Amino acid sequence: MELRNPAYYNNRELSWLAFNERVLQEALDKKNPLLERLKFLAIFSSNLDEFFMVRVAGLQDQVKVGFAKPENKAGMTPKQQLNEIAMKTHQLVDLQYEALQNTLLPKLQKEHVEFVKMKDLDAEQVKGMEVYFEDYIFPVLTPMAIDAYRTFPMLLNKSINLAVKLEPEKKQDEEGQKIAIVQVPAVLERFVQVEPEKNSHKLVLLEDVIGFFIHKLFHGFQVTSVSVFRITRNADMTIHEEGARDLLKEIEEELRKRKWGAAVRLEIQQPGFDLDILDYLTDELEVHKKDVYVIEGFLDLTAFFNFYKKMAPVWEHLVFEGKVSQLPAGMETGKQIFQKVSEQDVFLHHPYESFEPVVQFISEAADDRDVLAIKQTLYRVSGDSPVIKALKRAAENGKQVTVLVELKARFDEENNVHWAKELEKAGCHVIYGMTHLKTHSKITLVVRKKEDKIERFVHLGTGNYNDQTAKVYTDMSLFTSKRQFGIDATNFFNYLSGYTEKPEFHYLSVAPFTIRTDIIELIDAEIRYQKKNGNGRIVAKMNSLTDKVIIMKLYEASNAGVKVELIVRGICCLRPGIPGVSENIRVRSIVGSLLEHSRVYFFNQNGKEKLFLSSADMMTRNLNNRIEILFPIIDEKIKDQVETILELGLMDNVKAREQDAAGVYDYVPRKDDEPALDSQMELFRRAYRVAEDEE
């Protein structure tokens, strides 16, 4: 059988849209609290923004230069992909706004919060809003006229703007209609509160307030129409690494350019937009008609992120029940973390278990007089990172601190440039990775002296050193003081920072060198065990699966009879359940209140189970173009813990969807007598029970 047949694969971009559709389903789910549903609308919109800025922009660039070669899995040309993306995205956006207008906003009204139009306010309310406009909004606005001397302005990416059509009030003045653009200031509150009534809140959109009083900006002219629109630009960065004498400066320059990339999407609000203005904007921005989205409602629903943040403390009955991360067993005894890890490996499952021990590990190392060196990779960190603070303090305390800050972490480049400079000022040795490769691995090495010996402590994880995302992303990490892990970590950092051949590792498998080949060898071994003993089984959990070589090997395993169970949150180019190809493969996606982010790979190996955690998804970019780490779980007790987590994911019948042979996802059906199992909530319950048993 020809396993390269395009019919056996999902297109990467359409599979991503299918994932974002699952996010939208959470906004439609009546079982979710109201504020959470609004937040899922915001997540859906934010995801879509990034998708257009990077993936759609890249495909459009290919079409512009005449590239028409089909992609190597589903066999679709760039133009075919763009057509399918546009058709599907229009359907999803229509569904999103139908849910907002017909379901969620009416539910908000029942909570005494109403979005109203300026034209619906009474005279006294309008007067109050006029005072607010003149005092707070008017001074910030800058009308931008368009004529022979003032060309169409370069509008900021993701900004909301008003296109204003004008006519001179005095006919003897220059004839003809004029057009001006007014950008809605992002620094002001998007939802403006009308004078609050008792037990009620009326909110007006900032752009509606500006539009209502827009005439105040154009004395001597009559406003004939106001059209609200938003543009999305190509935000992918082209970094010329080979010629860059200073990568940090190169990235700073590219960050300045990012705001002004080619327009890839135009959203315009109806009712109220002017058809002539739409044609004018489409021509000026050079946007294809299929990338114009006429929105039935207000633009940019990412505004609900701030709305959620503001209202969640007030409306506790409209958000998910708060879940508190627990300390893992044995960590609350008051022992120094070094003492604990020197006795046994320690496993953490975030956010069910707290991220605090990771922060504590680095913080204790910074202040411990016996610590000689700290080495760490950083991909994404929080805005006020306690990890960064500890590393700076360590350098100030005289430790040898080496930090690899990945400057090319998409949409975190500016943040990482800032932290790189801060760390350098504190005396840390900062490196930026390797040419043409992103360093996506999550590893920390602490070197400590104990009497006359050197001991090494290693932390490895599936997620970033970000104390904020650790509260909402599910990730796994391991502390170990095993000697060979320490040697591997030392060699890994020396390889990243200096000139040396790729080292041989005892435990670590590192991309782009060996992860793919090691995974293939493990699958091949599973195939052999299946043929000999009939007990082949693979369970893998990841964010995305796109690598064709790995997919074909999984198809081969399925044909040999190996039972393959995949938990893939996002993109999955593999299609399960195809007779003679993937009939022994099952694919499910879990989308719930937490973002599934851990990467886990299990192989039965004839009962000698092998289990690995990794920073890497099975994506071609991760395996070819990134520095990633795959590491084994050696401790049998920890291995049992992780396998239990996998099994719970495979049993989820509340937030899990399964993919069929056509690539379509549906909720996992539940039998009448089968109890509901939400794997995320069950893991919180189990963490609580362990914490109670420790007391």
From TrEMBL:
Q: Where is the active site?
A: 440
Q: Which GO terms describe its molecular function?
A: ATP binding; metal ion binding; polyphosphate kinase activity
GO cellular component terms attached to this protein's record:
polyphosphate kinase complex
Q: Which residues form a coiled coil?
A: none
Recorded family membership: Belongs to the polyphosphate kinase 1 (PPK1) family.
- Supply the name of the protein: Polyphosphate kinase
Protein encoded by which gene = ppk
* InterPro entries referenced in this protein's UniProt entry, alphabetically: PP_kinase, PP_kinase_C_1, PP_kinase_middle, PP_kinase_middle_dom_sf, PPK_C_dom2, PPK_N_dom, PPK_N_dom_sf
Q: Looking at the record's lineage, which domain of life comes first?
A: Bacteria
The catalysed reaction is: [phosphate](n) + ATP = [phosphate](n+1) + ADP
Q: Which NCBIfam families match?
A: poly_P_kin, PRK05443.1-1, PRK05443.1-2, PRK05443.2-1, PRK05443.2-2
Specify which residues bind Mg(2+) according to the UniProt entry for this protein. 380, 410
Read off the Gene3D superfamilies from this record.
Answer: Endonuclease Chain A (3.30.870.10), Polyphosphate kinase middle domain (3.30.1840.10), Polyphosphate kinase N-terminal domain (1.20.58.310)
Domain Polyphosphate kinase N-terminal: residue ranges: 9-115
Location of the Polyphosphate kinase C-terminal domain: 336-501, 508-680
